[in-house]
Amino acid sequence: MANGEQVQLSILQFKRQSYINVEGKRDASRFYIIKQGQVQISKESEIIEEDTGNILYPGDFFGVVSCMSNHASIESAKALTDVTVICVYRDQFGILLQKYAAIAIKIIKSFSHKLRYFDSAITRLSFKGNVEENPKYLYQIGDYYLKKKQLNHAFHAFKVFIQYCPGDENIANAKKLMLKIQPHIKEEQFSKKQEGFNRQYRDNELIFAEHQPGSVLYIIQKGRIKITKIVNNNEVLLAVLKPGDIFGEMALLEDKPRTASAISFGDSELLAVGKDNFAIMVKTNPQLGTKLITLLSERIWKAYRQLANILISDPLGRLYDTLLTVVEENRIPVSHNEGYTFDFGPEELIKMVGFPQDKGNLLMQKLFENKKFKLQDKKIVVTDLEELAKQVEFYKKMDLLERKRQKSAAQKE
Fold first, then answer.
1. Which of 89, 127, 213, 259 sits 20 to 30 Å CA-CA off 357?
2. What CATH number has the domain bearing residue 325?
């Protein structure tokens, strides 16, 4: 990037009570930083009460998620006072970060906090429980892997547990279990030093465990990484990441333990970025900041859609909405009589929504009663994407009307 390249930022003014951004707006090519005034952020149906509040002030930003993920806006922004904003276009982002790295750090930290908050809400609503990340739970992680005969993973978890929880009541037992496991594991992976920027891992090697403190984020150079979480005594596969993807950023940015485990899926090579060099790397390599913000924007959009899906009261509506989310995630235009073949079948869809198999089978029968949906070569096919969008809109409107009715009834009491 040429040193002489300048950031030409636009300054826009909005009158009190005017809308700067509208929920559902597509093709958002810019975001905003408030220079003067106050802005209220709202959603058609508030999914959860956000802990950061919905009033923004000078120095705050909005519209980044839709701009950088290239998805429809998930919120509206209304001027509470006369407002002056700085308008930043997507193609200006890298230049902006090179000159003002502090903006990138602020956005990344804000997004990391929001994503952790959303993930916690999803876990609480989906699995009816929410365990705050804490190194003391590494003992349970080790015990889980021991029972599954994944001895290397168990040894790793017990070792980190002993390191961070020396006074815990389970320390003596953890040490005994490590001695019992030790003759049966590839101990060289625990004695090798992983230092510097470049890290190498063998197939099925635990990079870090859920609840483990961390101060490093990783960028995948070669290979793939599985992200897993133990829920209700089952290991749930959350994602399989590929070269170019970034993981582990939330622990680095928020000084909190890992929310999930990372396991090498085949031999892998990673670039490790620690707290001491993170800000410097963002400033000297604005592509890193841009990629991380784009990644977090995509994750926030998806987490928000997951939360919205969980709160749809009709289970059939949740199936439709899950299909539409996949379509939008793949950025497929929703048009009349345009079809789409999903790369999964009914069984996978049922698991994605989290329904028991018997309940899911009955719902799939109802879904296929709609002639716009069919099963072809064990894959779900929709022949009209507009019909899919209309079904989702119908169920969401029914929920919105019911919430308004309940609110009105409560006010009359």
1. 259
2. 1.10.10.10
